[in-house]
């Protein structure tokens, strides 16, 4: 346990926040700080073929210790943290033998992590929990995943009696801004399949995710003196409101669950002369996904006919549901499921209401389901991770490696 805690803390105290406005890869220079540390650590524990490219993509190999052919498999995690909340000067707090009551994250600012609101906390009564100090995120997304992968590789190196094939590990930048797989060299990685360690609650195993698109609506208005505006003014703000009102009002994140899709407006700004709306479109079903994008075009056409073509719409697909690529090789999900059950974990197989690098990688030729990393409440000050969940994730990784070799034999 202490090894996992020390390793995890050494990662989360390094700021690796990514930046969607940047055109570089990685999007922030500070991601290199952890990247270089990881390269040194992988070499130190005995990994082979440790490489880092000009974009900070890290790969390493644990050679096979079998005298028969075993498929090469991989484990992947990302080292950036979200730009949604500060990752600077992270000060983790360790709560041992959690008593099931409120956790004071920050007494001065009266920030409380309470099971009355976050009832998942009660799953971890008696466990060791790592939290924030209430002023930053923690970074378990996905430094818990990195911790687990490095620790599992170290364990396998130290226990050669556990038979396994060739294992590849990969650590990526910029996953939080949707670019984690963009420059990932699947051919160089050389695995038949892989797993991202980027899920949440212990037991999660996911091979379905949203189909995703981003949209930007730009409205060009016309400003004239309001006293003499009749028949002349085109108020871009008002048209933006009309556009949003024509979207299904209940099909938003706060009113949907499981496989239900949504529209999510995440930015709006404007004046009479100019307004912009940015939103994302999500749906697990491909047909519904296409229908959602079509609705955006239909609303644009309707309002343009009223307001003299003042609206432009851009829609760009971001990623697709990896189920299509994973189902033909479903044994890789079964292996992960069997590994969990073998160490006493009940698998929670459910669709992701989001996306992972694994989605894009699956469409790039590397089928890649997602496994729990153990954290909760990602992207904010209430983030926490039970250390025991990270321990179990290490066990799952090592068991997958062992089962893959057994199946090949």
Quickly list its features.
single chain, 409 residues, alpha+beta, eight-stranded mixed sheet, four-stranded antiparallel sheet, 10 helices
Lay out the secondary structure.
Elements: H1 2-12, H2 31-45, E1 48-52, E2 58-62, E3 73-78, E4 93-95, E5 103-106, E6 111-113, E7 129-131, H3 140-158, E8 167-172, H4 186-189, E9 193-199, E10 204-206, E11 211-220, H5 236-245, E12 262-270, E13 274-283, H6 286-306, E14 311-319, H7 323-326, H8 331-342, E15 348-349, H9 357-363, E16 370-372, E17 384-386, H10 387-408
Parallel strand pairs: 3-8, 3-9, 9-16, 10-15
Antiparallel strand pairs: 1-2, 2-8, 4-7, 5-6, 7-17, 10-16, 11-13, 11-14, 12-13
Helix pairs in contact: 1-3, 3-10, 8-10
Outline the structure in words.
It is a single chain. With 409 residues, this protein is of the alpha+beta class. Helices cover 31% and strands 22% of the residues. The strands form four sheets. The protein has an eight-stranded mixed sheet, covered by helices on one side. A hairpin with a 5-residue loop joins β1 and β2. The longest helix is centred in the C-terminal third of the chain and has 22 residues.
